[in-house]
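Aim 2, interim progress: modelling of the flavin-adenine dinucleotide-bound target.
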Amino acid sequence: MIPVGFDYARPDSLDAAVALLAERGDEATIMAGGHSLLPVMKLRLAAPELIVDIGRLRELNYVKVDGDEVAIGAGTRHHDLEVSDVLAAEVPLLPAVARTVGDPQVRHRGTIGGSLAHGDPASDLPAAVLALDGTIVLRSPRGQRSVPATEFWTGVFTTAKEPDELIVEIRVPRTGSAGWAYEKFTRRANDWAIVAVAVVDGRVGLVNMGSTPLRASATEAALAEGKSIAEAAALAAEGTEPPTDTAGTPEYRKNLARVLTRRALETAAGR
Amino acid sequence: MSIMGTRVVRVEDPVFLTRGATYTDDLTDERLTGALHLTLVRSPIAHATITSIDVSAAREAPGVVAVLTGEDIDLPAPLLFPGANKAMVRPWLATERVRFVGEPVAAVLTEGRYQGPDAAELVEVDYEPLPAVVDVHASATDEVLLFPDAGTNTAAVYNKEDPDPDFFADCEVVVTRDIVNQRVAAASLETRAASAVWGDDGRCTLFCSNQNAQGARDEVAGWLGVDASQIHVVLPDVGGGFGAKIGADPEFGLVAWLARHTGRPVRWSESRSENMTGMVQGRDQRQTITIGGSRDGRVKAYRLDVVADAGAYPRLGVFLPVFTRMMAPGTYDIEKVDSRARVVVTNTTSTAAYRGAGRPEATAAIERAMDLFAAEIGMDPAEVRKINVVPPEKFPFTTKGGAEYDSGEYAKAIDLALEASDYAGLRAEQKARRERGDAKLLGIGVSSYVEITGGGAFAENASIEVHPDGSALIWTGTSPHGQGHATAWAMLASDQLGIPVEKITVRHGDTDQVPEGGGTMGSRSLQTGGVAVHKASLELIDLAKQRAADILEASVEDLEVDTANAAIVVRGAPGSPTVTFAQLAEREELKVKTVWDGKKPTFPFGSHVAVVEVDTETGKVTVERIWAVDDAGPVLNPLLCEGQRHGGIAQGIAQALLEEVVYDPDGQPLTATFADYGFPSAAELPSFDLVPMETPTPINPLGFKGIGEAGTIGSTPAVQSAVIDALAHLGIRHIDMPTTPLRVWEAIQNAVKEDG
Ligand SMILES: Cc1cc2nc3c(=O)[nH]c(=O)nc-3n(C[C@H](O)[C@H](O)[C@H](O)COP(=O)(O)OP(=O)(O)OC[C@H]3O[C@@H](n4cnc5c(N)ncnc54)[C@H](O)[C@@H]3O)c2cc1C
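Predicted structure of the complex, ligand included:
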């Protein structure tokens, strides 16, 4: 559990981080909370030559209302999401999802930007941002661009982000009082989801039902057509190809997606 | 008032909570100055022939002092379990063949600790894969042999007689079932570690993480071919063992040999990844249970057939089916009991003791059998148990398994658990939920158990020395690693001598100070080492009285201890001269050493009632409550006793619901990280309801039995049974452990399918 040796840099501004990343190219890897990166380094599955630590950049840690949206700095920790008053009022789904991530230590280190960039289909926050129809704001020396969450994840651990791009912000609509719920199914309280379902404002995000976070489009369409919750939820696994591991078969995961979607929709309807 | 039976707070904890423990890897002992760091290159393949090992690049890496392969080691390969087939030796470093993922292949010694893994990556090993043997039944066919020289994969057979075909002939009802007692990992939070240094006197000091210093010393000395007196084992704090740290690991021998070979101290501490394949694992029995009896609930005959997995190299796991067979009938008075066991090698990590070690496997089997029998005759499972348990008037009771149960009130234990849980009320709630068609159903499981503690190592020594300042020092041959002996042993001495607990220091785990000792395992410590401390206290009093007789000018018979003042006084003569233990120690060393030999094990017993909620839509099981009657005789310190029960129950629930070491068909471990291996956290567990019951044993003067493993033994079958019970109305009779959400859901799907 000792990683391969590496160089370490801690730029003191976002601009410096962007510049360093561009300069060192493929050799460099961003580290935010380190709670996905360090485990793979310790297992020697990753061996970056240079770590660019952005974990202490305060300019990346914020939650603020911006027009119809809430803007969240990429370096905002899971715990900060949990306790944010702005989110509690404007996007209550996010604090609820953040609360289910790992354990308190993980939540005090891990960041939303890191979680989204890592691209693990079993992660919680990506599916929540997807269900929220959020946007991911990226910056590189070429400037800034926004990618809709629906286009951000391209495969297991892969995203639309270029190697020299940093996630700087996540933007999500102010859903306010719209119904929402998060149903995370685990073996143990602080495990990753076997399957999880995020529901907000009639949209449904699925965790661990394929190589990327997914939207349950068939369910959303059925809801839009005015079908009952039970009918809509029965379609939640449509088109998915969930993985097999010791915790579940594809059949089992599909069942979970349907059950959890129904439960989440019922909870959302009751709020 | 006696201190016995009171909640004395653990004297160990202030240091643990402030400075923290000092584990082997934390040692700053000056003898280890300049130590080399050992990194082991381990096999990524379960079964393969090694065609070449190239260490040349690794030798050139920064900080490397030596890279060794098996060819470089001039020691005979050890037979880790003396009773096993002599060909099943484990090479120090594999040279011709690897037999499990994680087997050491090369040893890298570096100046700096962090240089080791870099250099290890440069060792090039070519493997030619062989078919992996993972399943015990496949192993038993001997189609693929792990040790061609052995000519068989069978490491041991217990009871070679063919089963009697008429064994169940007089039974009205016979039920049989194949069940799995799955493999689990101890996952102690401190991984394995050892450091060795040879002194100018030609002796080796070996610091290691272990449950038994003396056993580790003897094994390492044997492997190195030196006299045991040449090895001095010192145990620093030990961060959990659960049976997996009993005696030396072959890595310890390697560390000691490398230190001698290089003439420098050598340190080794494994990573978590290494630990999850390198440290011995537990349980792993495939069992066939057959039970027969009459429709009135009387069980007449029981048969247990076991095929146990030794892993790649036979270790203590080969022996454990002996305990399983001995405890096969459990708490029941069954006319005919028959059992046999075969232990085979597979391309997996070796197995050895794990909390309960052979006895939980017996209990899980007989308890499943009782449930199956009850279901078959349509009787309440608690009732069936009560009909069949050994009645109190039959004690001491020699079982068909060959055990002599010392004392027990099994039916009373069941009744206490049923009363505490309001069993009838639970059944009513279960019925109501089923009738309402709730998605979340209730399941109730009842277990009755008896186990054996202090099995095999009945004697233990203790010494007590009182100092002129009034303090006392106890040396014990037990080996606490969380159990709280520093508190408990001090209480036992304080109770007799009147020296306050805070003035008594308890030391252990140094083979020069305590050359003999059985360590801490098999829940033996209190009933052996604790009783030895009690005996030593009495002998110290005798010695003190003899010396005080002169001083006080009274005959020994007229003297007694004044525990309020830690002094010897003349009986019934208030105001007359007294002499304290401290004053006696000032004149002359006041010290005794004694051995207690109980000659026999004891048999703690109890009954658990577990209530689970099963979410039929997802298969998820939540343990709602568990009531535990764990009778281990009189309780010395309820705080420590409850701690043992809590930990045991947690581990037992985890086996029922969550934990399983899984290998794929190629022998690759699928559960080798803490993300994948399902050990529980507090969030998965309910608060435990502990019901008191104390039945002393006649085996020792204090009536103590062992409590370390009881919780594990009673809770597993109760919880497994509760899960199945929740689904009984669907015709489900059995679900193998761990009853994961996936398994439970699949069982429900199959039942519904069969029904429709
Ligand atoms: C014990 C444990 C349990 C966990 N349980 C859960 C769980 O239940 N659910 C869950 O969702 N997650 C879980 N996690 C993962 C955790 O949420 C991580 O913190 C998160 O996935 C990554 O965030 P980070 O800030 O730590 O990223 P890092 O580990 O620092 O980085 C992860 C990856 O993202 C890249 N990256 C980071 N920040 C940026 C950025 N701003 N721009 C571009 N690239 C970036 C890095 O280069 C790296 O490739 C767990 C982790 C641990 C250790």
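The longest strand of chain B covers residues 173-185. Residues A 29-37, 39, 74, 101-102, 106, 109-111, 113-115, 117-118, 123-125, 166-167, 192 surround flavin-adenine dinucleotide (CB under 6 Å).
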